[in-house]
Amino acid sequence: MSFNIALSGLNAAQKDLDVTSNNIANVNTVGFKESRAEFVDVYAASLLASGKTKVGDGVLTADVAQQFSQGSIQFTNNALDLAVTGNGFFATVPELGSLETSYTRAGQFKLNADNFVVNSQGGHLLGFPVNPDGSSASVSLSTAEPIRIPTASGAPTKTSEVDVRMNLPAGDSYIAGAPGNFDPDDPLTFNNSTSVTIFDSLGDSHVMTYFFVKDDPNTNPNEWMLFAAVDGKPINLVDDSTVPPSATGIIGGNVSGPLQPTGGVGGARLTFNASGDFISQIPTLADGGIITEDFTNHLPNGADILQRVQIDFNLDPTGPNPNEPTQFASNFEVTALNQDGLAVGRLTGIDIGTDGLVRATYSNGTSQPLSRIAMVNFANEQGLTQIGNTGWKESIVSGEALAGEAGSGTFGTINSSALEQSNVNLTTELIDLISAQRNFQANSRALEVDNQLNQTILQIR
Q1: Which candidate, 193, 194, 186, 188, places its Cα nearest to that of 176?
Q2: Which SS3 state, helix, strand or coil, does residue 323 take?
Q3: N or C end of the chain: smaller count of CB under 10 Å?
């Protein structure tokens, strides 16, 4: 019996050495979780045996339990390096369409040839689908999909509105013959001008210029005419309430409605009071805008010719508004000139928030939410089945996978450009290694003594 006891001690010491050696070997493995050998004594007795004199039967390895304590965070320069701070695992599948989900804390991700986010073993990182505002459409693991970074450029947006704020100089001189002699190519026929870059439906840029002509102060005091041109070619300004969106070719001045035709170009009239406040405009819309005719004669590149641009002066009928134009005795000054169109954008970067939201940014200043990294937790982490490559599988002991968003509930947050290091404490492991070695030596000595006793007994005559 003493042989068996000593042998069980040797086996236990060897197991302890193996576990400690494995921890030391993986001290630099990203996402690795150290293990601990747990032992129990063996005690067997029959119903009628005397428990007072029963000696134990040795030791048994009860479990090699993984310790899921937090590892230290190491920061990197790769946005796809991810570290979880707190509870939770990344979920991956070996290939598209697979339901064989595995879980890991190792966040060394990269892009494969098809622009999917994968780890070193080719496992596809799963994420929840998101709405245009970035909120998760679903947080069920069954709806999670492999995350893919788009290669397409950001879609362009045609300009539909331009917001203008400026000061028109009250002291400007009236140009004889104005506004009837307006010519965009002759700077002597207008007082001031300013330009803004607008975009068509294909993302091509165009220069839209606004010309301001002071009207005759004897007949129309404190009034200015506004004209517009796209790429140097005049474009008519119309009243959206009287001219249908498809109207084209409004050139020459014979148009119904409040359009102010002058010199063959349809313009708009801006009126100020004696205090320099903006009080009215013709054409007048409910929201204070002035609309161009469609771009039939201005877009030769195949873009949407029905595009129309609203010029918004933020007219407030109730009184002066700081967003309105003014007519003060100062220089011509443009304080705001903003348009809502966008050029074609190329992918410039990927941002991953602490909540796991993956967002693509484009060169045209836009960004687009792509997915939200799925986080998974378990009732009993130590019950997970190890599969190698710092990965685990769900088991009966671990309980079912519980999916959710990073930073919500019991789930930890995600750090981009960071990796979670192994949670192995090398100093502690070296001390454990010495202890296991001493334990092995002691049990070896016990086995040797048992052998000597047996030899002594056999030599008795």
Answers
A1: 188
A2: coil
A3: C
Tokens of 169: 């100089």
SS3 441: helix
H/E stretch holding 432 reads: helix 426-458
Instruction: Indicate the length of the chain as a whole number.
Output: 461
CATH 2.60.98.20 location in the chain: 161-339
Q: How far apart are CA 247 and CA 80, in angstroms?
A: 52
Q: What share of the chain is helix, strand, coil (3-state, %, to 5)?
A: 15, 35, 50
Tell me the C-alpha distance between 201 and 455, whole Å. 98
Q: Which CATH architecture has domain 161-339?
A: Sandwich (2.60)
The Cα–Cα gap between 88 and 103 comes to: 9
pTM here is 0.69
pLDDT tens digits, one per residue of 24-44: 999 999 999 999 999 998 887
Averaged pLDDT for residues 384-397: 94
Q: How, if at all, do strands 161-167 and 310-312 pair?
A: parallel
Neighbour-count burial for 308-339, b at 16+ CB within 10 Å, e otherwise: bbbbbbbbeeeeebebbbbbeeeeeeeeebeb
